[in-house]
Amino acid sequence: MARTNPLQFIQQTRAEVSKVVWPTRREVLLTTVMVFIMATLTAIFFALVDILIRGGLEAVLNIFG
Fold this sequence. Notes:
The protein is an all-alpha fold. Helix content is 82%, strand content 0%. It has 2 helices and no strands. It has helices at 6-18, 25-64. It is elongated, with a radius of gyration of 26 Å.
């Protein structure tokens, strides 16, 4: 594999970075809000599952204990 000199590497890197389509401020904001909403919903779901499992386990233990 041929080696690229540092100047060519920098030029190629700049050319590739210029091809990147950066998200707009609005897209970043919407994506961030959606992540927080999904994290909250996931936390609520697992809290409810935890409460149900704990309640069921306590019921079973009360029957046998």
